[in-house]
Amino acid sequence: xxxxxxxxxxLLDAAIDALxxxxxxxxxxxxxxxxxxxxxxxxxxxxxxxxxxxxxxxxRTYERFMPEQEEWANVLEGPRTRAKxxxxxxxxxxxxxxxxxxxxxxxxxxxxxxxxxxxRADLTARVRADLDANIAFHEQSGMPGGxxxxxxxxxxxxxxxxxxxxxxxxxxxxxxxxxLVDLVVDQLTLEG
Length: 192
Prior knowledge:
By secondary structure, the chain is an all-alpha fold.
């Protein structure tokens, strides 16, 4: 059977929405078909098992998180300073928070991975590769700070987005999302 890439993407986007809004238990073929507005049975033609659906959904979340080419180009413009790091991190966090279902689905996938060793291995490899790529990019682009800077930013800003999307009232009195990103970057010791 010839697969339609647009339909596959629509099914995965529907799976992301189902995960974000219903949790892993709500991710069924029928839920995906309904959300995607396709005939019942369509998702099962594209994904061989629930594990396959989960794995491919995790790949799709990464596709949707990727910045546009313009954002990548902006990273390489101008001096490599603390202000540039803050600007890039604000753009990253704003992009992640702008599509909450993608981020929330990622959290659901991580929770589901605690019960599914194959999904855990897949997610661990993907996230580790992404972190390594971010470290390499940071260092090769001449940004201040090194490996530990990227690790601290990864830890702090992922939790900031999690808090912002799940319990927004906790940090509301501390400032805007962008202001909190600046606070994190300001607290870093950036050599280089």
